[in-house]
Input
Amino acid sequence: LRRLSPNVIHDHAEGLSLIKVGIPALMHKCVFRTVHNAFEFDGWLRVKKLIERRIARLLGVKTITISQSVFSNESKRFANRSTLCWNWFDDSHFRPPSDKERIQARSELGLESHEVVLLTVGNGNDTKNYSSLIRSLPALIGATSAIKYVMVGHEHPEGKERQAAREAAVDRLVEFAGPQQDVRKYLWAADVYVMPSLY
Output
């Protein structure tokens, strides 16, 4: 931070958030923290996070929330004042593909033209609820025999998605693509974007 001397610091991860926003705030930097999830912390963890958020606020850190449910959760659960700024995207980049672009994207990803491709993009955690989608695949197989679920992003740290795939006997229908630099290619190749999040 001393070497780069940035004018503004923006943090958007929950892990170690007080350290990541507190140190720059103590260095008199302008610090913003975006909360992307309705964290349902209870018990001691809730108290700890409430204290962390209060200390950050006292240090001058501004909190931004990305949806009404996240805004309400921060307010009610952590007494954390925030500014609601709806999630956004670049609609000139993330646009529907042409037929040619769609065919090319599917080819690059090794997806067959007859496969119905379901896609999720995000960090695998309990709130994202990807395991429920995986457990529903056997029911969807009745509607189409050529279904494939592609999960782009980090998997659950406890491997819950892979466990759900094994238990539902749909391992062959699930592709764990991991984090990707070019997410648009996956969006273009998919037939259905699925958002099974609890919020």
Q: What stands out?
A: Helices lie at 17-26, 43-58, 68-78, 99-108, 130-141, 160-167, 183-189. The mean pLDDT is 94. The CA atoms of residues 16 and 52 lie 10 Å apart. Residues 43-58 form the longest helix (16 residues).
